[in-house]
Amino acid sequence: MAMESPPRSRTAKDGAAPDDAGKRRRRGPKKVSKSYLENAALHYLSRFATSTENLRRVLMRKVDRSAHHHGTDPQEGAEWIEDLIRRYERSGLLNDSAYAEARAGDMLRRGTPTKGIRFKLMQKGVGADDIDAAIGTLAEDTPAPDLAAAIALARRRRLGPYRMPEVRAERRDKDLAALARAGFDYDTARRVIEAETLDDLDRLLSEAE
């Protein structure tokens, strides 16, 4: 009876021993330069709408990592960033007012109340004047923005009148709690969740105009 051969030890594709293969170095952050920051900024702006302050934070994190690993001068890096931001503001690539208005409208359509919109824009570093203007525009376009947002969230999550009729009564309190957690006041949540039909929701919005 032939004896089984002992299992062959696994090696890395490059022929290194397993222990050596597991000790590959992690690549550190790249050293920041002015051209590197500009490329990073343009790449970020091509993917995301953003505020001036948020872009500043994104780029400054790269400078800080480069300072830690490569000795980059943080002050010089900050000056490069400010130069980029000034140029992007002049060219229109960065516009906090337009960003706040577009972002506020998007959040409202997804079911965020105005106080939630205000908080999230503040987190992105948008100034108070731009936030006020964006929320003012929402109020002009949608006379009852919080009610419209609550209805939008109910539609997205199938709450209240968007549920099957046979489960609405038993889910009422949970649906009210869901809107409360999202930041809506009790009266707004109750009006949406207790609406009998979708036509009643449309009527609520029409009456608010």
Describe the structure.
The chain is mainly alpha-helical. The protein has three domains: 34-91; 96-109 and 116-138; 145-208. It is built from eleven helices and no strands. It has helices at residues 18-21, 34-47, 52-70, 74-91, 96-109, 114-123, 128-141, 145-157, 165-181, 186-193, 198-208. The longest helix has 19 residues, at 52-70. The chain is elongated. The N and C termini lie far apart (91 Å). Mean pLDDT is 90; it is low at 1-5 and 9-16.
Q: If you average the pLDDT, what whole number results? A: 90
As for the number of domains, it is: 3
What is the share of helical residues?
Answer: 55-70%
Count of individual helical segments: 11
What are the secondary-structure elements, in order, as H or E? HHHHHHHHHHH
List unreliable stretches of 5+ residues.
Answer: 1-5, 9-16
The shape, in one word, is elongated
Q: Which structural class do the helices and strands define?
A: mainly alpha
Q: Beta-strand percentage?
A: under 5%
Instruction: Please outline the major beta sheet.
Output: none
First-to-last CA distance: 91 Å
How many β-strand stretches? Answer: 0
Gyration radius (Cα, Å) is 27 Å
Give the tags.
single chain; 209 residues; mainly alpha; 3 domains; 11 helices; 0% strand; elongated
Per-chain topology:
Layout: H1 18-21, H2 34-47, H3 52-70, H4 74-91, H5 96-109, H6 114-123, H7 128-141, H8 145-157, H9 165-181, H10 186-193, H11 198-208
Helix pairs in contact: 2-4, 3-4, 5-6, 5-7, 6-7, 8-10, 9-10
